[in-house]
Write a structure and sequence with these properties.
Elements: H1 2-35, E1 52-56, E2 71-75, H2 76-82, H3 87-91, H4 94-119
Antiparallel strand pairs: 1-2
The structure holds zinc ion.
C-alpha cells in the first residue's frame, strides 16, 4: 500500500519537474528570441539596421494575423527586405544567405577580441 502511494508521489514529482522544465525551456527560448533576429541571427542593436522590429511571419497582406504565433522579432534590415514576401521565399533568398554570412563574420572577430582581452589584464 505504501508502495503505491510512493509511486504516485514519484509520478507527481516527475510531472511537476517536466512542467517546470518545459516552462523554463520556453522562457529561455523567448529570451533568446528577444535578443537575436529570428531570420539572420544578428544581436539587436539600439539603432541602425540591426535594431529590433516585430515581423509578421505571414504578412498581413496575405491574411496573416496579429496572433503571437505569427509574430517574431526581426532586425530592421530583414524586416525591410522581407516586406510582403512570404516566409518560405525570404528564407531561401540569396539576400538572407549573404546577410547570415555577414552576421557570422562580424560575430567571430568580436568573440576573438573578448578572449584576447580576457587573457591579458582583464
Ligand atoms: Zn535579421
Amino acid at each position: 500500500m505504501s508502495q503505491l502511494g510512493s509511486r504516485r508521489r514519484w509520478k507527481e514529482a516527475r510531472a511537476t519537474f517536466r512542467a517546470r522544465w518545459r516552462a523554463w525551456r520556453v522562457a529561455s527560448r523567448n529570451r533568446a528570441m528577444a535578443r537575436e533576429c529570428f531570420y539572420c541571427g544578428v544581436a539587436f542593436a539600439p539603432e541602425g539596421p540591426d535594431h529590433r522590429t516585430v515581423d509578421h511571419r505571414v504578412p498581413k497582406s496575405q491574411g496573416g494575423t496579429d496572433s503571437l504565433r505569427n509574430l517574431v522579432f526581426a532586425c530592421y534590415a530583414c524586416n525591410q527586405r522581407k516586406r510582403d514576401q512570404d516566409e518560405e521565399a525570404f528564407l531561401t533568398s540569396e539576400w538572407l544567405q549573404r546577410r547570415r554570412d555577414d552576421v557570422e563574420t562580424r560575430a567571430v572577430p568580436a568573440a576573438r577580441r573578448r578572449r584576447l582581452n580576457g587573457g591579458r589584464s582583464g
